[in-house]
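Schema walkthrough. Field components (list of strings):
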Amino acid sequence: MKKRILIIEDNPMVAKSLQFKLTSDGYDVLIAEDGKKALQILEEEDSIQLVITDLMLPFVTGTELIEHIKNNTPNLPIIVLSTSNQEEIITDAFMMGVNDFITKPFSPNELSLRVKRTIESY
Amino acid sequence: MATLNNILEDSPWILKVNVLFAILFFLLVAIIVLALVFLRKYKNGREQRKRSYQDRIDAFLNNYLFDEQFDFRAEVKNFRNRHLVSSLQKKMAIRQILEYNENLKGESSNSIKRIFHELRLDEFVLDSLKNGKWYEKSRAIHVLSQLLVRRPGVVARYLNDRHHSVRAQAIYYFIKTAEDNPLSFFAKLNKELTLWEQIHIEDGIKHIYKGPIPDFSKWLDHELTTVLVFSIRMIQQFNQFEHIPQLVPFLHHHDRTVRKETVRSLRKFNYEGLLDKVIPQFFSEDQLVKKEIVKSVQILGDLKMLQVLKSAFTQQEEWQIRLELLRAEKSMLSNLNPNL
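Field assembly_structure (string):
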């Protein structure tokens, strides 16, 4: 059975590229273009095995979303994909319990390897 | 209709005019409403076509980037011949390619740059650079710099363009695409740099250019005053101490802005010989330079030196310099005695 990944990204280009790459890697990919929709999918779907999220999202921010996930499904791994490369933001994200932090611009091949590593370690 | 005609025939002329205007008004309203409906439908259709075309470009680019079965030669040829026909299609494809280029790095980013050439979009951009309006030229140079298309000979022509936005993009192009000499474009400049352009270049060298820091002293013999001022400032900002001896002669340059920048830079370098060279020329100096000399005495000199200047300074009309001297004196005195 294919492993299911939820991508939360408001940039359609990035979302489509990630979906294409991860689908070709053999994953089942769901896309949410904002935090509200992501919360809805997380409530409806219990088969998600990894969340890849941006931090700057409409309606519900990435940070709020991470908090929500860590409170409700603490074992669900999270990878942050963000344009921010400030040390403070990266440290805060890891303190909140995210498993990996990737900065944009990103290498799809590198991201694919990190996704594989994160999923395999859970 | 016949009844209406009968009524109108027997009516006074004022009623006839009113009816005529009412009919004209309703016709006008009907035309406007129809036009609005048509425009809305046209716009929606256009947006729909744009969205579906954008999806097609995305699908093509993602297939190209991530599908191992992608038949490069055939697919590129097919896409170019079928979906890159109109100017709008080419512009949209370029916009998407730029977005991919901005968000992806590594091998994917190189592939994106390659597909731009393979789709012959570089030819389209170069054409719009030659024939376009200022905003098209500006946009075209931006695309060339983002995708690192190395055509410095072509872009150099726009360094002295009439429109500031085109000039700014041309400058950015040279900084962005440079491997080791980001200021090579100085050789082709024949228009003075604006202050914004100088800020823009400094920012570009600090944040966009990735190569070794250039030797700014190479431009100390440039014929443009602003290039000279910029180079002097950069020598100081990048701590190129080895060029201090080359800066000293500029204390006697004929242009006051060059002398001002030299005094300021040498002061920031804490150059010991500065005061000996500038104090003798203080009274004959321009106000702009005098201010910098007073600041230099405050930082590098002593109170006695400042008081000598102050007592000898009798030009009533230069109240700003007098004020500067008083400020410097107060600051030096309070440094000597913090209780003052």
